[in-house]
Design goal:
Blueprint lengths: L2 H89 L3 H21 L5 H38 L3 H8 L19 H9 L1
Helix pairs in contact: 1-2, 1-3, 1-4
Amino acid sequence: MNRNNIILLSVVGFFAIILFWGCNKYNGIIKQDENVKNAWGNVQTQYQRRADLIPALIRTVQEAGKNEKGILESVTKARAGITEAKDEIGNAKTPADLERANAKINSAFTLAVEAYPQVRSTEAYLKLQDEMPGTENRIATARSDYNNTVRQYNVAVRTFPGSIVAGFGGFTVKDEFKAEDGSEKAPDYDKAWDKGKE
């Protein structure tokens, strides 16, 4: 093999290594870009979950409250029926009068016993209270995961020699989630409480 062929093969080998490295780096940046898109999709999923779940839970609580109101009204009527039946027992003049009064008491008692196990609005409120912070925690975790993924991607596109490949590929730095202005201050719960009472 002559000297010119060795030099030519060395130059071709060098450029092949550079090309292989550049392709590998480019593909790595694409993978990280896709990871950022996936993390962003996860954030959107959690927001959508909140948008779907919380109104449904609130409707459930409202319906349970309406149901409980009806049950409590029925129980109140049953108690009134028992009181009325007691008066009838005191004023009864025949066994048939006593039997009618007793039937009213039994009917009212059965209604009250059957109604109370159906009261579920307290459980619905507790589920809503549990679900709210859980949902917010899921969103916070998804945001944090997104920020970590963006950080890894940004390091890849800003550091040398990845910045050269990123420049050729049109990859730019992505924004992370940031806290809103003023969110570093603790909320004024007294103001919020007073506003809620209005």
